[in-house]
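#structure-requests
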Amino acid sequence: MTHSILFRRFYNRVLSTFAILAIASFGIQAQEQNAATLDSLTLEFDVHRAELMKPIAELKQIYQEKLNELLDEVTAAGDLKKALAVKAEITDFASKGRTVVDEGAFPELKRLEEILVEAQAQRVNEVNEKMVPLIEVYQAKLKFLQKRLTQEKKLEEAVRVQSVLEKVEAGISLPDLPALAAMEKKGVGEEGEESEKDMMIGKTASFAHSTQTDSIIDVKFERDGKATWVGLGGVAVEWAYSVGETPLIYYFWSPSQGATKDTGFKLELEADGKAGTVTKVRGGFPVTEAKISRSRR
């Protein structure tokens, strides 16, 4: 029986069990809602969301175990090159939480990585689907709590609930959902190639100039790997960009100045996609905070 079949059978059972338990236990009666507070509802939601995500964490653990088994095999065979490749993957995966196996890896290692990517993508989709009813219940409880607090004339508390509710409805208080997508391995394409996981199309990254910190630079991300750099004086220059190792990492550079992805800038988005940091790939530029917004037409 292949690794892939084992992954599928085991995790389909585990994920279904977690989903049923999480959603069932999250549903409460009206009298329990009356006693609920914003903090208790948020904690309850976070706990059940974490339960739904356990299969992904466990999948990563199984991958690490399989890597260690493969390391035992290749070291027993005395194959130093393969042993070093597996050891490097074990180290990188443990520190970065994602696979970094290259296309030239030996077949056994490459196949193990392919199984992980396939199973992980399936888990991400399933978790996102099962997260929807959990979020809907959370929203309903928040609305009930806001109404009750308003009726009790606890207006400041009601406003707090409203603020959380607005963030939930906008999707910006659920960092795990976009972060799950980042767990899918997506290699960097050719320069200028658009990725199916491109989160920045139609958005602008704004950050301070490296020396003139009171001046703001805007980088507008367009389709087909094209970007526009609007720097000092409002001058717009055509740049290029590509999605990096995950959908939360971007590289952008100026082809007209002879730059490439490896000599340009790197944008690392936060999980909610609303902010990030900008650095120079080869240094010489301080770590700078960036704000992400929709590009103006």
